[in-house]
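User: Before I run my own analysis I want an independent prediction to cross-check against. Here's the chain; please return only the structure tokens and, at the end, one sentence I can use as a sanity check.
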Amino acid sequence: MTCDEAEVLIHALIDGELDAGHARDVEAHVAGCARCAARFSAWRDLRDAMPVRGLRHAAPASLRSRIERAVPSPAKTDRRALLKGFVAGGALSALDGVTPERLNVGGLLARVKQGVDEVILAMNATVEGQTTAHYLTDQLSDFDVKVTRLAHGVPVGGELDYLDEGTLAAALKSRTAF
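Assistant: Structure tokens:
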């Protein structure tokens, strides 16, 4: 891994958003590179220093209460444990040479054969992510399993003024009753 690659992934590592393989790669690079270790430490210190309180806008108490009643409180656990995570090992990419053979599709199919009710595709909202989602859906079509994907659109706390047209279109397409 190069310093440029590590720099892009350091933020995701700090936020706990990398799969185990990528996290291990970034951690190994940071451990062996003083420059990247200093950047990692500085970004982690900055994140730790950011106040959680004092947000610019607070939701009205009645809205906050309705949302809290509607959303079940998750047990304290990390996201991977919550999803009983299965990692395909990347996304298909013709440009990067990532073919179906390089993904862990066999492991996914074996797990589905053992008895899974639902496969939730948690892919990036990119061409590669959507291509991979379509490929996996096709591979799972012979099984009696529900295949869904995570919603795409407006992030929690996002401001409409800063959304691009694609994100706004995805949010409109996936809208639900309120």
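Sanity check: Residues 77-154+161-173 form a domain with the Dna Topoisomerase Vi A Subunit; Chain: A, domain 2 fold (CATH 3.40.1360.10).
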